[in-house]
Amino acid sequence: MGPGKAASLADATRGRILFGGDYNPEQWPEETWHEDVRLMKDAGVNSVTLGVFSWAKLEPRPGEREFGWLDRLMDLMHTNGIGVVLATPTSSPPPWLGRLHPETLPVDEDGRTEWWGGRQHFSHSSAVYRRHAAAITEDLAARYGGHPALVMWHINNEYCTYDWGDEAAARFRQWLRDKYGTLDALNSAWGTAFWSQGYGDWAEVHTPRRAHYLKNPGQVLDFKRFTSDMLLECYVAERDIVRRHSPDHIPVTTNFMPLWAGQDAWRWAEEEDVVSVDLYPDPRDPFGAQHGALVQDMTRSQARGPWMLMEQAAGPVNWRGVNHPKPRGLNRLWSLQAVARGADAVCYFQWRQSRQGAEKFHSGMVGHAGEEGRTFQEVKRLGAELRRIGGHVTGSHTRNDIAVLHDWHSWWAGAHEGRLSTRVDHTAVLTAWHRALWQAHLTTDFAHPEHDLSAYKLVVVPQLYALTDPAIDNLLAYVRGGGTLVSGFLTGVADQDDRVRTGGMDARLRGLFGIRTLHEWWPLDEGETVETDGFRGTLWSEEIEKGDGGTVEVAYKGGELGGLPAVLRNGRAWYVSTLPEPHALRTLLAQVADGAGVRPVLHGLPDQVEAVRRGDLLFVLNHGRESVTVEVPGSHQDLLTGATVEGEVTLGRYGVMVLRP
Ligand code: GAL
Question: Chain-centre distance of CA 335, in angstroms?
Fold first, then answer.
C-alpha cells in the first residue's frame, strides 16, 4: 500500500460533475486557445486534461525546460474558471530519449525494438527512462503543484507496455528472487520438471521470449504479474513526486483501459485517489450499452464509490476497422448512463479534433464541423444538463445486492496457449454473464474473490479458473454465512501457480457444489451446441458425476453426457457446467437471484430500458430508438426537465430521466 488516500474525487468536483476532456493546445496557434475558452464556457466545460503528450514540447532537448506556453495555459484556464487535470507527459518520450538511450525502448518477444514515431515507446524497466520521467515530473510538479487551476494529477496515460528486453529480464529475475527466494521454489512453482526446464542458475531465467513450442505457463503467468507490477512502480514513483509538491486536496489518478489484460486493476486502484477509465463502446454494437454498464460497474467497484470517466468519444473513434459516428442522442444517453452508475466526471478524448497526426479522424467535442456541428451542439446541451443534476448526484453511492467476481490472475492463468479450448475467452464469458444479469434488469457490483462478500445476497462467478486457498475459503464462508453463489464452468481448476488441483477442481469446491467426480471436460466447437432438458448449452460442457447433497436442476439430454448434470445445485450453491444460450442464462440467473431475494430495480421493464439507482435517485434510460412508456410507481420529479411524473414515464428515442422521489 502506498501513502494514505488524502484526497478524493470530491476534492476536484466540489459538488459539480466534472465535464471536459483532453486538451492538446500545443497542436494549435495561440489564437485558437482563446476561441477554445469561449467554446468551453459556452459548453459548460469545467475541467481539461493538459499535457498528456507534451514531453517533447516541455523538454525539447535533454535537460531544457519550456514551461512558458504551459504557464500561459494554466493561467488562462484559471482566469476562466476551468480546472486543470494536469498530466505527467511520460507515456510518450521525446525522440531524443530513444536516440541517446536506445535502452529506454521496449523490445517485443521476438527481440524487435519498438521505435519512437508512435507513442508509448518506453520500457517500464529502463532505469534511464525512469530517471528522465522522474526529472520532468519533478519539475512539472514543482512548477504547477500549487497552481490555482490544478484540480487533479493524471499520471502517464493508459499504462500498457510490455518489455521482453535485457533490462526487463534482469528486473524480472530480481522480481522472481523477491517472490520465491530460491531457485528450488521457482522450479517448483513453474513445474520445470516438465520438458527439462529446470533452472540451475538465476542467469538462465528469462522473460518468456519466442520459443519453439508452448511456453512454460508459470513463467508466462509470472511475467504478466511482473509487467503489471513494473508499470505500477512507474506510476507510484510519479505519484509520490506530484504528491510531494501539491497540497493534500489534489487527488491523483491514472486512466485505465477497460478490462485491459496488462494491469491488475484491483491492485492498482488501491494506489489511486481517483479511479478513472477510458470507455469507447462501438455505437453500432447492439450491446454497446451493456459493455458500458460492465465497465462502469467494474470501475465503480474498484473505486468503491464515485469514479471518473476520463475519456469517451463524442463521435467516432478511428481505431476500429470501420468507425461509426454516434447517432443523435447517443452521446447524451451513454454519458448519463455513466453518471447513473457512479461517474462524477464525464470527460472526452479530446476537446478539439486534431487536423494532423494519427488521430485526425477521431472525433472531438469540437469536431471538424466546429461550433455549428451537431456534435458540439449536443455536447453543449449535455454540459447544461450535467450542471443541472450535478449537485444532486455527486458523491452519492449505489448499493447492489449482486457481486460478480473477477480476478486478473485467474484470467492470466486461464489464458495459456495450451488450454483445452482457445474459444474460451475469460472476458467473453464474463461479458455473457454480466449481459444476462443486465438483461434481467439486475444491477451489479464487481468484487475480487478475496474481498468481503458478506454484504451481497448473491455472488456470481462467471469463471475463475485459478483460485487461491484464501479465495476458496472466502467463497465457502460466504455460502456458510447464508449467501447464494452461482458459478460457471472451469472454476477452481488451478491454484495460484496454475497447478491443477487434485481431481481437476478443488475438492472443497466440489463439496460445495455437490460434485463427486469431474470426469472430463468437453469443449464445444464453433456452432456446436449441447442439448439439456431446459436449454441449449454452448462453448463448453462437462462430464460431472453428482455427489452427496447435489440436486440436478438441469440435465444434459442425449449425446455422451445424457443424464449428467448441466446445472447442479447444493443448497445455496449452484454450478453451471456449460454456457447456456443468452436467453436461458438470463432466465436462470433471474431465477437464482429471485431465490436469493434480489429483485430488479423496476418490474416489467421493456428490454431496451435500463433502470439504475444512485443514492435516492432513479435513472431510467431508453436504449432504443422507439419511444416507450414505463411504469414507475409513485410520484417523482425529473431533474433534467423539472417535470413531475406520476405512475409512469414516457421516454423518447434514447431518452433519459433522472427521477427524484
Ligand atoms: C485512448 C488514449 C487517447 C486517444 C484515445 C482514442 O486510448 O488515451 O490518447 O488515443 O484512446 O480513442
Answer: 16
The per-residue pLDDT for range 609-625, each reduced to its tens digit, is 999 999 999 999 999 99
Q: Is the pLDDT of residue 2 over 70?
A: no
CA of 625 to the centre of ligand 1 (A): 28
Nearest to 185 by CA among 497, 528, 403, 490: 497
Is position 204 annotated as part of the catalytic site? no
Residue 3 has pLDDT above 50, yes or no: no
Among candidate residues 167, 271, 272, 311, the one labeled active-site is 311
User: If one looks up domain 402-595 in CATH, what number appears?
Assistant: 3.40.50.880
Mutate which of 282, 326, 349 for ligand 1? The one with the most ligand atoms within 8 Å of its CB, which is: 349
Query: What is the pLDDT at residue 121?
Result: 97
pTM as predicted? 0.97
- Spot the catalytic one: 59, 114, 158, 272: 158
* Contacts for 645 with CB less than 8 Å, ≥ 6 apart: 632, 635, 636, 637, 638, 657, 659
CATH topology of domain 609-660: Immunoglobulin-like (2.60.40)
For ligand 1, residues with CB inside 6 Å are 157-158, 278, 280, 311, 317, 349, 359, 362
State residue 6's pLDDT score: 76
Best residue among 160, 161, 311, 320 to mutate for probing ligand 1, ranked by most atoms within 8 Å of CB: 311
CB atoms within 10 A of CB 176: 23
Evaluate whether 9-165+213-393 and 402-595 have a shared fold.
no
